[in-house]
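Illustration: UDP-glucuronosyltransferase.
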Amino acid sequence: MVWLLISLIFLSIFLRIYCSPLDVLIVSTPFVGHSFRVLSIGEELARKGHNVTFMSLDNWVNMRNKAIERGMSYLSAGRHDAEEGEWREFVLKRIELSAQSPFTLLADFKLLTESRKLLSFDAIVEFLIRQDLKQWDVIVTEKELLQSVPCIAKSQGIPVVTVTSYYSYNTESPPWPFPSYQSGHSENLTFKGRFLSFLVTVGHRFLHAVSLKRIISGSSTTERLCSDNFKYPIESGWEVPLLVSTVLGLEYPRVLSPMTHYVGPLLSRHLLNASLEFNSHLWKWLETKSNKSVIYISMGSLVSISTDLAHAFIDGIKDTNYSVVWSLSDLNKNVIPNVVKLHPEKYHISSWIPQLALLQHSSIFLAILHGGANGVHEALYHGVPGILIPFVNDQFDWSVRVEDAGVGIQLLPHQVTSSSIKESIQRIESTDEYHKKASLLSVLMRRAGGTNEAVELIEFYATYGYDHLIPAPIKYKWNWMAYYNIDVYAIISCFVLTSMWIFKKCCCKCCCWSMNKKLKQS
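Result:
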């Protein structure tokens, strides 16, 4: 009895030390697309019993409600000064730049610099600087805030884990043989493609090194903290852990940095388990459809759909046997042709569709999407191939990857016509390969772990830290000459060239001496 009591005491102490809940702070920008991943992680952390605080700005998205309904407490960093219309206008300007050329890097960086208020990074950083971060065990943030949050946290000794949907351009991977981020090129690179991929990589890295301090950190206090604590600008995955919501099969092969982890799609457990039955009208409409007979369309909430684009979708699908579920914001409903309103049995249009629940319905044949990471992950997680129409940023990158993986077709905006939509549908319809490959990728995504894997890594880094995992070149802040060993190569090259020059001189002298000797003898 005594031994049992002692064992129980030791067990309770062990559980108290090693299984006590963590206090986690999640720092997010106030935009749905970016916050979706960290909200899903926070939801899973809360479900496992951790104390999670979600910090963001208050704006039209209502992050407070989104955090609270997922079991987190909410900490407001203030009011976001920008209105929804201003943000929409900013996105449309970036879309216009991308339409001109995917290589308009300088113009895009200039636009980002001019739109600091809209991005809201400064307000979040200034609020975070005033906080006593030691009340939390670990901070989780988006990679977009990478150049600020880790610097502030490390100055107070708090570990930070960053989250992103892509392994971006400022990594140590070479710019070949695979296309660089946002180059818009397929993996089957020609000489021109490899050359342009190289230029985009060099351009991105140059702008990252020169401009990122001014564009993202902004605050002189933050810049000082970064310079004191990191090899600034911070290399994600090398100096702080980086969780990437992708999988091999969709991601190109590359050398991974020590603290980079592919965790698969970061999807909300609550939304994954949600039933369509609560949306009775949509549920009843889908139940009348046969297996793989419905096409889902969503261009996101920010893209303004033109009348031509709407007609291209409708005219491209009307001669097929497929019905359509269309997620269309109220802003775009005036572009819908009358034919849609006359055939409610074939078209279901709503300003809000429970996308994750819909995509797992047996009636869904394919999805026509704008190529955002969230939509691509959700479709492929459920084995649904896609037709992707990218407009801006990483949408080009995801569209190319989906096509390379054989799980969808990319159509650039200027290529979208009724005939191109119809031909793309027929291509996916004519062979089983797209659905087979999408099913295989779905298995990879489910096995990657998703939010559960992300939470386990956050628990690990919160418990054990990661300073011991930082490689020497980063830890000791080597400059680029030391990192790439250029000084050593230069010395060796000088030694070799000097040796060759001495050898040549010796040979010449020997030859001259030999010839002179022969001449004297003759």
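Reading the tokens back as a structure: The chain has a mean pLDDT of 81.
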